[in-house]
Amino acid sequence: MAENEKYRKYWNAQIETMERDVLEELQLSLLKSEVRFAYDNAPYYKRSFDKAGVSPDDIKSLSDLARLPFINKHTERETQGVGSFLGELAAVPEEDVVFVSTSSGSTGVPTMSPFTRGDFDKFTDTVSRMFWQAGMRPSDRYLHALNFSLYIGGPDVLGAQNLGALSIWGGTLPSDRLLFVIQTYKPGFIYTSPSYAWYLGETALKKGIDPKSLSIRKIFTGGEPGASIEATRETIEKLWGAELYDFYGLSDIFGPCAAMCEQHDGLHLAEDQILVETVDPATGERIPDGEQGELVFTTLQKRARPMIRFRSGDIGRFVKEPCACGRTHGRIYIHGRKDDMFIVSAVNVFPSDVEAVLHGVGGLTSEYRIHVYDENYTSKYAVEVEKIEDESDESVAERVEKALRARIGVRPAKVTVLKAGELDTRSEHKAKRLIDDRKGH
């Protein structure tokens, strides 16, 4: 008997394989309750709904959600700490809160996300579900290599423990120490960021260790879009000889929101916990499922701080068609951040577009950096890359320029070629790959 045949196929088959019409009936019931709870208990929502001339009683179908106002990061910041420690978006008193995480603050003031005990229990169970759908079982060893310091991904280790896996709390150990942990305890699973998975693999090679000789069979990554970029995923998988699974989470919403299953075809959204809409980034008008736009999320069971129509700033698409794995919860495909997009010669360019092209160009390391700037009243971009082969800088630059022009439709103003190790983007955690010097950015 194969190892996994000892275990059930789904973490919660009733929830994960629910017929679409039954799932949407559940969502509507939960949405009505969530909107009513937010209106009755969170000062901001009562004021906002009243100003917009809407009430919880107006929610009679899932499509009625569009009648309610949006919120965003600015809403969080302007209400945080107002009226109470938890702020005006909170719907419970502080004594009901058992955990808080904060955003990184990379695009502004860090925002706090509170959880009641019930919220946190749902958080943990949802992470277990996502680990299970990626193939983790109680017989596995799991190395958690994400930051524990206020980061929403830190407690994900509890999802592995809840599932029954032997969990190793690595956190942000130095690379040498983390490699020692892998060699000593031989975990089959590790969770980190895409850039750090790359960095750790390269560090191993420099130490004379072939990452493929180590015990890691599956790599979970989050915090960056890399694992959903086919060229990036394939390169990391080749480096480690392991499967890569993308996870998507937002501290604003719930923490774990979506994750890949073993089909590697999009990320299953936890639709019993979160409702998603796709809207035009410019107008906020709803667009059909399957089309690319800005993803808007609404919590369905969060009590400490309900989030109703939160504009995530993430550009992607959502499909409802059942997956080959048998799960009926829809899947999201993340393309990039609205804030990171830049326009060159009327072409919309995301850093993920550039990354996908560069990782398909031979003779380069995994490191790159993009510079966006204004010149003669128009936006331009330049890229920096590292070469690993004995090839002239001019030849490498020409190959990179041609690839970017062919795939993206607009060439970079300049390609700078450095030797391996000279680009200072390597990081123990997230990597800073976009420098935006445009005025007003």
Give the arrangement of secondary structure elements.
Blueprint: H1 13-16, H2 20-41, H3 43-52, H4 73-79, E1 97-102, E2 112-116, H5 117-133, E3 141-144, H6 156-163, E4 166-169, H7 175-185, E5 189-192, H8 194-206, E6 218-221, H9 230-240, E7 243-250, E8 255-259, E9 267-269, E10 274-279, E11 293-299, E12 310-319, E13 331-337, E14 342-344, E15 347-349, H10 351-358, E16 364-375, E17 378-387, H11 393-408, E18 414-419, E19 434-436
Parallel strand pairs: 3-4, 3-5, 5-6, 6-7, 16-19, 17-18
Antiparallel strand pairs: 1-2, 7-8, 8-9, 9-13, 10-11, 11-12, 12-13, 14-15, 16-17
Rg is 22 Å
Mind telling me which CATH architecture of the largest domain this is?
3-Layer(aba) Sandwich
Domain module count: 2
The major sheet is characterized as: 11 strands, mixed
The CATH superfamily of the largest domain is known as: ANL, N-terminal domain
Shape: globular
> Largest beta sheet: what is the strand line-up?
4-3-5-6-7-8-9-13-12-11-10
The number of helical runs is: 11
Helix content: 25-40%
The N- to C-terminal Cα distance equals: 58 Å
Overall residue-averaged pLDDT value: 90
Q: What fold name goes in the CATH topology slot of the largest domain?
A: Rossmann fold
Number of strands: 19
Instruction: Output the helix-strand order.
Output: HHHHEEHEHEHEHEHEEEEEEEEEHEEHEE
Q: Which strand-content bin applies to the residues?
A: 15-25%
Low-confidence stretches: none
